[in-house]
Structures are given as structure tokens and as C-alpha cells.
Q: What sequence folds into this?
């Protein structure tokens, strides 16, 4: 994220979607096009633990914040993940 850039929910959701698609290198074009804020991270594409961990690491690196593990565990869909990172970024000094 660019510092000073206005962070909107739509921008964060698009970033999360893009990182999800990049991290899961096995999605075909139709699957990539179907990813949105309602996509369930694990169930919709049978994501395994190692891929979800890689997704989480990529998000932390991209947004430069690290959510609480308990909260992270409750975020099941792309939109919930985006909201979690928005919350963390708003609390960052």
C-alpha cells in the first residue's frame, strides 16, 4: 500500500482478491473471475493449510499489519479478511 493513499474498503477488497488469486496459483480464468468479497477462503476452492498460510503471510507483508490470531481465525470470507485488515490499519500508529 502506498503511504498517504486513501484506503477505501473497495481498494482493500480488490487487493485481498488479487493476493488470494496470486497465492493460489492453481485457479483457472473462470475461477479467478469468480473471486469476490463473498468468496469463502477455504471452502470455495478447497484451499489447504499451506496455501491459507501463504495467503496470510502475503497479506501481512502487503498491508504491513498483523491481525490478532483469534480474529484472523474468524475471518472466513474475502470481505471479512478485508475488514480485519482495515481495522488493523486504522489502529496502526
A:
Amino acid at each position: 500500500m502506498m503511504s498517504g493513499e486513501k484506503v477505501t474498503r473497495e481498494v482493500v477488497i480488490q487487493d485481498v482478491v488479487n493476493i488470494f488469486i496470486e497465492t493460489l496459483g492453481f485457479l483457472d480464468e473462470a475461477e479467478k473471475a469468480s473471486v469476490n468479497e463473498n468468496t469463502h477462503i477455504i471452502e470455495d476452492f478447497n484451499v489447504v493449510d499451506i496455501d491459507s498460510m501463504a495467503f496470510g503471510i502475503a497479506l501481512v507483508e502487503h498491508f504491513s499489519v498483523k491481525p490478532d490470531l483469534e480474529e484472523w481465525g474468524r475471518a472466513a470470507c474475502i470481505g471479512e479478511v478485508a475488514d480485519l485488515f482495515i481495522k488493523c490499519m486504522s489502529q496502526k500508529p
About this structure: The radius of gyration is 13 Å. DSSP finds five helices and no strands in the chain.
